[in-house]
Amino acid sequence: MQRTQASLAVRYAGLPLLPSHDHLLGVIGYGAARPGLLPASCPFMMAPLLPASGTPAYEIWTAAAPTRPCQVGPVTGSCSQDLAFGTVWLDEGEEGLESAVEQAYLDIFAFLEQTGFNEPIRFWNYLTAITADDQGLERYRRFNVGRHRAFLARLRQAVPPAASCLGAHQGGSMIYFLAAREAAKAIENPRQVSAYAYPAQYGPRSPSFSRAALHGSEQSATLFISGTASIVGHETRHLGDVHGQIAETIENLQALITEAGSALSHSQPDDWALKIYLRDPLYQADVERALDAAFGTGGQRLYLHAEICRTDLLVEIEAMHHAAAKIPA
Ligand code: 3EB
Asked: Fewer CB in a 10 Å sphere around the end CB: N or C, the chain?
C-alpha cells in the first residue's frame, strides 16, 4: 500500500509548534492570541471559543504546496495551488445580525471570485449569544436568514457546503472557510432530514449546509463532516441525557462515514481529526470514552466549550478525514 500526500492537513496543537512556514494556510487560536513566531503573512484568528480544558490550543491548517497571503475587502486569507483559506469578523453595527451575516458571506463570495477558488467546501460559523432573542427572533434563526440570502444570490452549487455553527462565550462573531476550484461532493445522512429541508418550526429559513462534503479525487479525498448532533429526522433526541446524545451523535457520524463509502475504505483512527463542542466542559470524559470505544484511540481531538444552536443539544461533533486515501500498490 502506498499513501498519496493529502493536499490539506490540520493539526490541533497546544504550543505554537509551527510546521513548514511556507505551507501555512491559516491558524485559529482558542483561548490563545496570535503566536509571536507566526509569519505576518499567515492568517490568524483568535476564535471566540475556549478549549474545554482551559489550556490554550491552536488549529493549524497547512497545504501540500506553498501558500501566499490573499486579502479581499475584509476577508483575510491565503491560497495554495489548489485551496484557499479565509477568515472574516461579522460587523453587526447598526444593521443587526441578519445583514452582518449576509454582508460577510457576500464578502466571502467576492474573495472567492477574485482568487479563482470559486467553490466553498467548508464553513465554520462562531456566533456570539447564538440562542439569545433578537427582537422576537432567535439570533441563530436570523443568522440562517442572512446566510440564506447570500447563498441565494451567489452560491453556484445546487446544495450548500458542509458547515458548523456554534455559539461563542466571549469576543465577536466570525466565519472561516476553505474553498477550492472544484466543488466537493455533498453527502447527506439517511437518518436525518437534510438541514436545508428542515420544516419551518426551526425558523423562517432553513440552515444552509450539507451533512458532509467529500473533496478531491477518489484516490486522495478529504472528507469534511459538518457539526453533528443528537438529531434524528429533524428532532432532537435524548433530551437532558448526555450519554444518550453522545451515542446518537456517534451513530450519525458512523452513518455519514458509511455514506462516504469507498473513499474511506482504508481509513485508520490516525487519519481523523475531531472537534468536539461541549455545552459543559464536564462532559469531556464521557465523550472521550465513547469515541475511544467507537473509533479507537488514535487521531486528533480538540474539545471546546461552546453553546449549541438548539438549547436542548448538549454535544456536537465535527470531523475531518485527515490523511489521503491509500492506493493499492
Ligand atoms: C443540526 O444538525 C445541528 O447552521 O451551519 C450543525 C452544523 C448545526 C451546521 C449550521 C448547524 C449548522 O441542525 C446544528
From this structure: C
